[in-house]
Amino acid sequence: MKIKIYFFGKKNEILDWEKEYLRRIGFRCKCELIPLAQAGITEGVKAKKIEADNFLNKISDQDFLIAFDENGIEKDSMDFSKWIKETLENRGEVIFIMGGAHGLHRSILDRVNLKLRFGKMVWTRNLFRLMALEQIYRALEIAGGSNFHKE
Amino acid sequence: MKIKIYFFGKKNEILDWEKEYLRRIGFRCKCELIPLAQAGITEGVKAKKIEADNFLNKISDQDFLIAFDENGIEKDSMDFSKWIKETLENRGEVIFIMGGAHGLHRSILDRVNLKLRFGKMVWTRNLFRLMALEQIYRALEIAGGSNFHKE
Questions:
Q1: Which chain A positions have a beta carbon within 8 Å of B129's beta carbon?
Q2: Which of A58, B72, B106, B116 is the most buried (most CB within 10 A)?
């Protein structure tokens, strides 16, 4: 079982706090946080298209892909845990993608198997990565029967 | 105008990242992150009551108090910005309180003027403080007309 999390940014943006979550998640499931090159242009739509093509080339049609998106559905921590456990068991691997400064291109949003969001608010990118890692860690702890999560 | 954010924990838990948000928020509005002593007992309900009494003694009946609570309402970043701007203008000060490991005692939840939440998920305390600071920073930047926030 494996979780891949793609983000638009550089490897050196990954914080020690994130590395600590990756280490802890690693006791339950392989998990990789993978940077994607950002298009070196400021024009939003064109940049999103180049970035999207680059990402979509990395994955196959069979991959189970989840986008973090402002129009996604919301799950509570228990539901998210149940869902990720079942999905990992059924699919073996899940891939998350989070948007860059310009959001995700339509070609990615059209491709994904599921869109998820954490509430209505907009979050800054670095903080959002940490939030996603925390929820994935929490989800696997719940599924693994630890007492980390208190309702 | 002033924002006070109370949390159950110790001053040395406050991260550099949080201090950076406090510094940036400080350009728009006075903002304090205030630790509250945690009851040194493990029995949840009793601890919550002691902690709640201690906190409620610090504030007056006139204070405008917002709790972060899982049963709170949700606002998007634009609405939160509009709301915090108006509330600061009308009331001069807003006070936020976030729960400890056991959540908030009923006496606090009964006292508050508003309950807010960031989505359905449960968040770890340190990360939640950072999330609250990020949204307050974002809200004041939106209200101040900066281009930090991109819809």
A1: none
A2: B116
